[in-house]
């Protein structure tokens, strides 16, 4: 079975009740800069990155919590928790998704409205959300 190839950290996500306030903190205190935010589903989101860095941080409006790991059997993928997560990129996306399924890992795939971005969501054994 194929493991992920060419893995790199894509982004870190933070949630907040006040997206603009938290973005201002990252901008003014930590030196992040705001970058273009693609049109994804969901509430307010601001994307930022440190100058000269490819890794981004996404600050999202706090939404209703999704299903807990032990309650997620048959869960609606639209309700997956999107707040605190880690997102990686891989160079073999389709092969990697097939390998997850072959290993018995429950996955939820989604194409974003930009028509370019495909994502797969899954949980690690401790119930932490991963997005590739």
Automatic annotation (TrEMBL):
Its domain of life reads: Eukaryota
Record's signal peptide: none
Q: Where is the VOC domain?
A: 8-132
Known SUPFAM superfamilies for this protein?
Glyoxalase/Bleomycin resistance protein/Dihydroxybiphenyl dioxygenase
Q: Where is the composition biased (Basic and acidic residues)?
A: 65-79
One protein family per Pfam: Glyoxalase
Q: Where is this region: Disordered?
A: 61-80
Name it: VOC domain-containing protein
Q: What is the originating organism of this protein?
A: Stephania cephalantha
